[in-house]
Amino acid sequence: MKKALSIMMVVLICICTMACGSAATSSTEAADTATAGESVSQEPDASSKTDESDDAQQKADEQRDLLAAFNSNPFPESLGSFTTEDLDGNEVTEAYFADADVTIVHIWATYCDPCLEEMENLGKMAESLPDNAKVIGIVADVNSPDAEEKEAAKQIISDNNVKFPSVIANDSFTKLLTSVVGVPTTFIVDSEGNIVAEPIVGSDVIGYKRMAKDYLDTLNQ
Fold first, then answer.
1. Is residue 27 part of a domain?
2. How far apart are CA 180 and CA 25, in angstroms?
3. Which domain holds residue 32?
4. 160 & 56 share domain
């Protein structure tokens, strides 16, 4: 760190020295410099447009790749029966879904920055749901009770004051996880564990809640 700071100071000194030298140029040179400056100042606009175009194309390519991945290995229709543990060692089965009309299932990982960035808001959203809706997390990189990442996952949950359970991604979820193309991935299930909406890939807490609300609205029609 000290070496990096020293290098930065040298660069700054060089820049300042060059600036002082420029101040001593003739008026003709200054005019030439100003003209050149005007020419250069126009270049970032074209570059910016190119960058925006590249970003849009990259997003389009990513969406296409995600759709191709889902089509080649689609989500299961149901989570079926399973037995696992939450991060505190309590047994969790498919019975978790039985007392809610809809459950948001959120697959995340300890190495996933978008997952961590939205965790606090996700916890708050879960507490704002009606009584007939709830949330459960599946920690994709914690696949056994003694996984090294388990403590990190518990710390993340604690730091963000998350109340809903997150469970270990053991062999019960092999079929599901082979269909996941990235984390976070979030979907909803009914009281029997049937997947009732297309999954959302990427962080979108508002979208998760809207997905659950839309499903509940269909039940009330």
1. yes
2. 63
3. 2-72
4. no
Per residue in 172-209, pLDDT (tens digit) is 999 999 999 899 999 999 999 999 999 999 999 999 99
Identity of the residue numbered 135? V
Q: Is 77 left (phi over 0), alpha (psi -120 to 50) or beta?
A: alpha
Tens digit of pLDDT for each residue in 100-143? Answer: 999 999 999 999 999 999 999 999 999 999 999 999 999 999 99
81, 93 Cβ separation under 8 angstroms: yes
Q: In the block, which residue shows the tokens 């250069």?
A: 40
Q: How far is CA 171 from the centre of its chain?
A: 24
Torsional sign, CA 172, 174, 180, 183: positive
59, amino acid identity: K
Are 125 and 95 within 8 A, CB to CB?
no
- Cβ neighbours of residue 81 closer than 8 Å, sequence gap 6 or more: 93, 94, 172
Question: pTM of this prediction?
Answer: 0.70
Q: Are residues 183 and 102 in the same domain?
A: yes
- Flag whether 126 is in a domain: yes
- Least Cα distance to 215 among 86, 100, 64, 51 occurs for 100
Query: Is residue 67 located within the same domain as residue 115?
Result: no
The full DSSP string for 120-189 is: HHHHHHHHHS-TTEEEEEEETT--STT-THHHHHHHHHHHTT--S-EEE--GGGHHHHTT--SSSEEEEE
Nearest alpha carbon to residue 102 among 176, 212, 218: 212
Amino acid letter, residue 221? Q
